[in-house]
């Protein structure tokens, strides 16, 4: 596959249809104006970067993978922290800047306004994080060589729920190929509510979610409202996304132990020949980002390390998906 530098006035160069699985597409339609701009911090993270959105100054951190090539469209992950969190805490949880896991994805960790993301009642009113996300992506396209077919969202708790908010947005969600959440607080997608509105930009829209069986903050099977409003039962939420992604209403997902691990239950929706929804239920885990080594979530909730690392599993999930 050959790429030219679009900033040097080169003629259109096309991606090979055999590699993308679709018709040949001009480079300029797959990547932004940042292609050809040399960045000097490969393998490092820059913190405290700012842009303006909605009249507010917003702050983010950015990791440039060691394999970054300014002339090669590169996948992007935006990772959203939990309530009262920040980009530094989320970086320490997801460790998407670990070179052994992630030598190939740009990662951006934005900061929520006053520590929260749009959706729950505790979020600051009048702040559109959906608009901020779209503004951020537009900005990043001018700064880095980003593959528009491989933009992803991940998040923890309030940030995980916000990835669901994005997935339900026909406009702002259209930027993304897939989303993944850990302990997702899906306040804006209460699927038991017949008046709830969710209009994904396309179907299928692949979804991945991790949850602890004893999550006391965002229960797997909530019986009352959370601190930010009503919450869905996670199995119902997974099932509803299965239907949104082309599964029949009576479809029964495949439920199994992950690689024979009795502590991790995998629920998989495979419809029309595609894996469209995947859920992992971790036995005995509270409101934590799943990790085999100690992290701040486990310290806060009295958890122990578990048998899986969510972060490399999320990266592998994203690597298998491109936006059509």
TrEMBL record:
Catalytic activity: feruloyl-polysaccharide + H2O = ferulate + polysaccharide
Coiled coil regions, renumbered to chain: none
Pfam family, one: Esterase
InterPro entries, per the entry: AB_hydrolase_fold, Esterase-like, FaeB/C/D
Name of this protein: feruloyl esterase
BP GO terms, sorted: xylan catabolic process
Keyword Hydrolase: yes
First and last residue of the signal peptide: 1-24
EC main group: hydrolase
EC number(s) on file: 3.1.1.73
Listed GO CC annotations: extracellular region
The species this protein was found in: Pseudogymnoascus verrucosus
MF terms (GO), sorted A to Z: feruloyl esterase activity
The entry's keywords: Carbohydrate metabolism, Hydrolase, Polysaccharide degradation, Secreted, Signal, Xylan degradation
Major place of residence: secreted
Keyword Secreted: yes
PANTHER family reported for this sequence: FERULOYL ESTERASE C-RELATED, PTHR38050
Superkingdom per UniProt: Eukaryota
